[in-house]
Amino acid sequence: MSIIIDPQWTFIDTLQAAWKAYPGGIQFGAPHRIRSLERWANVVGQERAVYELDTLLQKYANLEEAAKAFGMSVSTLRRIRKNFKAMPRVTPFSQEPSKIVEQLELLETTKSITESTDDAIKEFLKLDKKVEVGSISRLIDFLFKKTSNQ
Q: 45: which of 73, 76, 91, 96 fits an S-S bond (Cβ 3.0–4.6 Å)?
């Protein structure tokens, strides 16, 4: 059986579909489930995949609890996260991180406070680190799309 990845799926949706399609043990099911999760991450992009996994992991006391809940080992969970970080940052199905809107609002506030463009750029770079959107080019693409649609 094979899974066709739906870009609307969350990490949990994909994990559940993988368990349904590949219920076998370590030798037969696990490798296929891992590949399904990696295919999902490749479709939705690095930012969304890492964000969803990290957000989900915060609900557990530690990686051991999360791994047990996901039906995998801690080392497999670490490997999945590492592989998610290696996925393309932007894909046709990747979405703008929800933090980007907040960052734009803070940038507007920063622009009105600062005296010069240099100060605004410095403040923006500090803000970018703090909010951890991670890519200035992603923000520029978002702004370009926003102004093109107006």
A: 91
